[in-house]
């Protein structure tokens, strides 16, 4: 039978291809890096298709299946971002994260049978989460560079900050709006100002503020960097900070609590 | 020299226009702060904004008048200092800051009061600035600025449906069992009757080994038409009216009926914003002309 029992084999092949791609990217062999990444995506994708056929349903019902999709989408987002923006480190990041999820899946087979709660059993779930994770990474690096600029006043890193912000905000927007479309399907409303949604909106507008500041006031680089840092703090609230707020007690986004 | 009241105001007006830079910046900031304080006082005195008053057709009427007023204002931009300010970079920054602050405030409340005067007032300010900016910026000497238009119109439609569409949104809950019923409960806890009957045919709940629910499925007769409703898979009764399975109850289950007549406006806004995000990903935001 084709199923989870042969998964480790696919993990090894995917991981090796992804690591090779990362090394090639760090050495500026751009084309080979992209081709190796696409092979990694194809190998993992082949496993997903096989599992789908074997189970006779889309594999999106258990925790193990979710992690499988995370790995796949992270690899896809990684190669797309690398192909477009040429950040050398980005493939290493996506490889690391995807491999972590694949290894968890190998080490904890009990996750393969643990059902997701019904509200999470949706085709929107995995892209929603994976895109967010990727945008956090890009915006995180943008923040580090902004701090670096405030300390060293090095103008040469500004184009990199701009690109990271553009790519990161684009993915953040996609995460937010796929969330809205899914919320309509699951709960009936696109946007209900649940604690997590409200902080996501605040974060989004802060990043929009940063972009507008950059475009309309090219000399206000210092303010721009400060807004980037504030926006990233707001992002931390949105990501995990809300779980510690009393306002999130009734949140529909609290899946990780025992109740 | 003596001034008649009319001339006196004119004098102050002219002073505002010709004042030196820092004072000129101060006036609109003071005005915006005063309006915010006034909205806060109104909130304390009168409670929430009466959103119900703007249910259809009032929202359509007010919305159209509102757009006409902004268009008329925009045409007077050469002479009106107010419109000039609202088109300035600072007004845009303030609009984005106001939107972010609204997000933070709502994110700190356990029951977000989306109809408070400050939220509605802030939302309207953002809408005014956004509409004026679109009217001014949708094309330049090189032609139509498609990316600008797509992203800004997407946000405009999403905000319009949120602010002006909200009074028409209804969320009803209904516990159903094997007897047909039309009686639902609205958000204020009042009875509300549907124009069709719902009856539960069958309800199944799958459990996994550790006892957590795996999937719920309700087979429901809607006016004797039998449909399946699952979590994440609602049934569309008609345009803008969908039936959701939200919970289970003894001898039955709980359905939620959502009426959202302006949903297509939200959807167009979301699709435009997604397209804008795709273009941002492909091209970045750097203005190559600069």
Describe the structure.
The complex is a heterodimer of chains A (259) and B (290). Chain A is mainly alpha-helical and 259 residues long. Chain A has 2 domains: 1-111, Four Helix Bundle (Hemerythrin (Met), subunit A) (Up-down Bundle); 125-259, Four Helix Bundle (Hemerythrin (Met), subunit A), CATH 1.20.120. Chain A has 8 helices and no strands. Chain A starts with 6 loop residues before the first helix and ends in a 20-residue tail after the last helix. Chain B is built from 8 helices and 10 strands. Chain B has helices at residues 5-18, 21-46, 58-75, 81-86, 89-108, 117-137, 146-163, 263-283; strands at 139-140, 143-144, 170-176, 181-185, 191-207, 213-222, 225-230, 235-238, 241-249, 252-259. In chain B, the strands form 3 sheets. A 4-stranded antiparallel β-sheet of chain B has the order 3-10-9-8, with no helix packed on it. In chain B, strand 5 and strand 6 form a beta hairpin. At the A-B interface, helix 6 and helix 7 of A face helix 5, strand 6, strand 9 and helix 8 of B.
Which strands sit side by side, in order, in the main sheet of chain B?
3-10-9-8
Mean pLDDT metric of chain B: 89
The CATH class of the largest domain in chain A = Mainly Alpha
Q: Whole-number average pLDDT of chain A?
A: 90
User: What's the helix count of chain A?
Assistant: 8
Keywords:
heterodimer; A: Four Helix Bundle (Hemerythrin (Met), subunit A); Four Helix Bundle (Hemerythrin (Met), subunit A); 2 domains; B: alpha+beta; 4-stranded antiparallel beta sheet; 50% helix
List the helices and strands and how they pair.
The complex is a heterodimer of chains A (259) and B (290).
Chain A: H1 7-26, H2 30-55, H3 63-85, H4 90-107, H5 125-152, H6 158-186, H7 195-216, H8 221-239
Helix pairs in contact in A: 1-2, 1-4, 2-3, 3-4, 3-5, 5-6, 5-8, 6-7, 7-8
Chain B: H1 5-18, H2 21-46, H3 58-75, H4 81-86, H5 89-108, H6 117-137, E1 139-140, E2 143-144, H7 146-163, E3 170-176, E4 181-185, E5 191-207, E6 213-222, E7 225-230, E8 235-238, E9 241-249, E10 252-259, H8 263-283
Helix pairs in contact in B: 2-6, 3-6, 5-6, 6-7, 7-8
